[in-house]
Write a structure and sequence with these properties.
The chain is mainly α. It has ten helices and no strands. It has two domains: 106 residues, RNA polymerase sigma factor, region 2, helix turn helix motif (Rna Polymerase Sigma Factor, Chain: A), CATH 1.10.1740; 82 residues, Winged helix-like DNA-binding domain superfamily/Winged helix DNA-binding domain (Arc Repressor Mutant, subunit A, Orthogonal Bundle). Helix content is 68%, strand content 0%. The longest helix is centred in the N-terminal third of the chain and has 25 residues. The N terminus is likely disordered.
Length: 219
């Protein structure tokens, strides 16, 4: 167990903590575990503040205090996520590097949720593809492919797959925002999108607009 030296800053203590010490301390009960969680939260907060600053253009007009509140919220969520997944750490990178990614991820989710807080999420059932090529021949080919894709979306996807695919890929609704609005999970939406893409790929292969060999190599 690492011995905390009050004359050393928390940041330096991060540097001298090994991965094993981090894991051991976070699992310990009492004051040692609480102190380890506090140090972990500091690390996550630095990551969250950095990411919130990078994404602040998505929140025009928001003040510095509100930005820091978002970073604090993200760090709190990230702390819970790290603690829940602590036993999944495999040591493929430094523990602090692994943890930092949680702060970045949750900060991005928090910013996107804030940016979409007052925006309506539209779940379209139809859409039109506008395709243009560099030459008249390419233009005609692109138009034919667009019509075939529109037909596949209309006929080969379930209504749920169609709405989720169009919301994510055409309306550009962030997946975490869509999951919140629909009361589902990111993984469930990823699965829906994956299945939809598989169906669209199969439809375009059947119609001769996609090569089966190329399709398999790019999965």
């Amino acid at each position: 167990m690492m011995i905390m030296n009050p004359g050393i800053t928390s940041e330096v203590q991060h540097a001298v903590s090994s991965d094993e010490e981090w894991i051991a301390d976070l699992h310990r009960p009492g004051a040692v575990g609480v102190a380890a969680q506090r140090r972990l939260h500091e690390l996550l907060l630095r990551a969250a503040r950095h990411q919130v600053a990078r994404l602040r253009h998505q929140l025009p007009g928001i003040g510095a205090g509100e930005l820091d509140d978002l970073a604090q919220e993200a760090a709190n969520d990230a702390l819970m996520s790290v603690l829940a997944k602590l036993d999944t750490f495999e040591g493929r990178s430094r523990f602090t590097t692994w943890v930092y990614k949680f702060g970045v991820l949750h900060a991005g989710v928090t910013v996107r949720r804030q940016a979409w807080r007052h925006r309506e999420v539209h779940l379209p059932d139809t859409f039109t593809i506008v395709a243009q090529g560099a030459t008249p021949a390419a233009d005609a080919e692109a138009g034919e492919l667009a019509r075939e894709l529109e037909k596949a979306i209309a006929n080969d996807l379930t209504p749920h797959q169609r709405r989720i695919t169009l919301a994510l890929l055409i309306e550009h609704v962030p997946i975490d925002v869509l999951a919140d609005r629909l009361g589902t999970s990111r993984n469930a939406l990823y699965k829906t999108l994956h299945d939809a893409r598989q169906r669209l790929r199969a439809a375009l292969i059947r119609s001769g607009h996609l090569d089966a060999t190329t399709s398999r190599s790019t999965r």
